[in-house]
């Protein structure tokens, strides 16, 4: 893992009116030095982190030298959601997770960018929870982003998302092996019956144990070994707090404020943030925002397709990043 950098946030006022005396905001940068190239902010998903490329990079297929987000032409900044535990310091975990919202995280990220003297951003991109944060960042600074690219997410948490977050919370509170069990349940949302049935075909690994059962157990054990319970609770909770219209007005009013070109990417088989909701979002927005486009990943794999169907995702992103990579430059305050 690349050495993490840190910005210290003091007396941060949360959306609910409470103040957090101190929060460390850890991040990594990749590619060109700050101030010399357009900035791309990459927001991680629920179990992700700031290592978006390089050794153990979770989006290496998209970010790197010669990749669609080309590190020869861009500066990539990736923040860790405070409390995700990626810094490895137990004292930085958050116990009062229910006090935090996606909007709070978006405000923290903007404060971090301003501490780095970044006032304008070429693109903000993220999948799932990371895409929800991207939506909020765009509303908070509606004239500071050229491209908003939310993937496998939506501008709000639907009742379906809230219901599943509730079930996850119940598992995390009451299970004797909370991370493992919550992760196994989540995997059934992130994939689809078609994907799982095609992969395992009712195979048995040894008497009485199906291959699919072992696969789920392995996912649970892997997450248990690298994720803290308080971090999982925070990330899960954040998913239900997302709504760019809360205390702001109608969707039409809010979407009109965003000056960025919006590129929404859905997944046709997503069981979590459904493609139907994504299509409706774009349809509703088109009367109020001229620069919004919709792309849909075709995949049997469901929500996790944005980690799998890289060729399709690259084809959607290429017009943004390759056409414009030498034409746009970020403004840095002196």
From TrEMBL:
Give the keywords, sorted.
Answer: Transferase
Question: One Pfam family for this entry, by name?
Answer: Abhydrolase_1
**Residues annotated as signal peptide:** none
Keyword Transferase in annotation: yes
Gene3D superfamilies documented for this protein = alpha/beta hydrolase (3.40.50.1820)
GO BP field: homoserine metabolic process; methionine biosynthetic process
**GO MF assignments:** homoserine O-acetyltransferase activity
Q: Which residues form the AB hydrolase-1 domain?
A: 38-158
Q: What name does UniProt use for this protein?
A: Homoserine O-acetyltransferase
Q: What is the lineage of its organism?
A: Bacteria, Pseudomonadati, Bacteroidota, Flavobacteriia, Flavobacteriales
